[in-house]
Write a structure and sequence with these properties.
By secondary structure, the protein is mostly helical. It is about 70% helix and about 0% strand. It contains 7 helices and no strands. Helix 1 packs across helix 7, helix 3 packs across helix 4 and helix 4 runs antiparallel to helix 7.
């Protein structure tokens, strides 16, 4: 992670979290829900967090803003993996599951007056990777805003 290319470093860090959570979607949840002995925590979990916080400090964020940026990024990435990547991975041969809402839900409620949802559901969704890039861009913008606020 380098301050000179901090936007790329943030994107790389977010991508590494995405890959970790995608491989083990409950990895973070387990450590939050259970009494995790310190010896069972891989040192990289601490080292990577330290490096990321240091990157944010090196580019001008104070510690409270750096912590807020990390919390925001972590929550967004974990949520993204559970809500976007997980269903997309499970959709496989069933593309009906990959939309805004399943087509069967709309068909099953043909009498429901939901024109805005029907219009939205008719549009193609961006790919999970495109959606993730949007998420990372939003986080980078928020971090950049922390420079202005700080």
């Amino acid at each position: 992670m380098h301050a000179a290319t901090w936007e790329t470093s943030v994107a790389d860090y977010a991508g590494s979290l995405r890959a970790l959570y995608r491989r083990w979607p409950r990895a973070l949840l387990v450590s939050l829900e259970e009494d995790t002995p310190p010896a069972s925590v891989h040192p990289n979990r601490l080292l990577n967090l330290d490096r990321f916080l240091r990157l944010l400090r090196d580019v001008g964020l104070g510690m409270p803003a750096a912590l807020a940026a990390h919390r925001h990024l972590s929550l967004l990435v974990l949520s993204f993996v559970l809500v976007v990547d997980g269903p997309a991975d499970r959709a496989g041969d069933s593309p009906d599951r990959a939309g805004l809402v399943p087509d069967a839900w709309l068909a099953g409620h043909a009498d429901l007056d939901i024109p805005t949802l029907r219009d939205a559901a008719a549009l193609p969704l961006p790919t999970p990777d495109e959606q993730f890039d949007e998420l990372v861009s939003a986080v980078v913008d928020r971090i950049r805003g922390g420079f202005r606020a700080g």
